[in-house]
Known about the structure:
The structure holds 2 protein chains of 2 kinds. Chain A is an all-beta fold. Chain A has strands spanning 4-7, 10-13, 19-25, 31-38, 42-49, 56-57, 65-67, 73-78, 87-94, 104-105, 109-113. Chain A is built from no helices and 11 strands. Chain A starts with a strand and ends with a strand. Chain B is an all-beta fold. In chain B, strands 2, 5, 6, 10, 11 and 12 form a 6-stranded mixed beta sheet that branches. A 4-stranded antiparallel beta sheet of chain B has the order 3-9-8-7, with no helix packed on it. A two-stranded antiparallel ribbon of chain B has the order 1-4. The radius of gyration of chain B is 13 Å and the shape is globular. Chain B starts with a strand and ends with a strand. Classes of the chains: A mainly beta, B mainly beta. Chain A binds chain B through residues 4, 31, 33, 35, 40-45, 48, 50, 58-59, 90, 92, 97, 99-100, 102-103, 105-108, and chain B through 4, 32, 34, 36, 41-46, 49, 51, 89, 93, 97-100, 102-105.
Amino acid sequence: NAGVTQTPKFRVLKTGQSMTLLCAQDMNHEYMYWYRQDPGMGLRLIHYSVGEGTTAKGEVPDGYNVSRLKKQNFLLGLESAAPSQTSVYFCASSLDTGENQPQHFGDGTRLSIL
Amino acid sequence: GNSVTQMEGPVTLSEEAFLTINCTYTATGYPSLFWYVQYPGEGLQLLLKATKADDKGSNKGFEATYRKETTSFHLEKGSVQVSDSAVYFCALRDTGRRALTFGSGTRLQVQP
Lengths: 114, 112
């Protein structure tokens, strides 16, 4: 059971470089989310999507862009990486936002910006 | 706005000890409440949930009761095991909101 798969698992970038994090889910979920996890701050929502072709800003969207061209994939882009974006990034998905529909998380991407 | 406050860790216990991890929240609506667990190197997994006041969520020996009067959702387990060592996150989803609001997490270390 694959569930939510994130690629890559680790990456080191230099300031100013760009990259894309890929999230893929095989559960036919409508909703997908990108969070970042920083020490002492829990998880904070970056962007989310309520369906193919749609995206919306979360709590901390600045410096990131996202795309949902296919229902199963949700891409997170950093156009010009900054040291403040050093974090662990988690993707999640859910069938909908009903009270009985939990979010399923990937294993995370650890990103370091030098 | 919404917020979740958890007790700071790490919490270090001996095997078979009783566990309590405190969680309190503020919300504008009538939130659903969750506990997620994160084992080393893995993503978050839903541990238990409660969707209305006085509901009790339970799973794998863990329990938490939704207390509206004290805006709390404390996690308890009667006898912890070494395999319970992980980071525990309390979270809420407010009425009409799509995403979760997480607490900062509490690391639990259980020693044999």
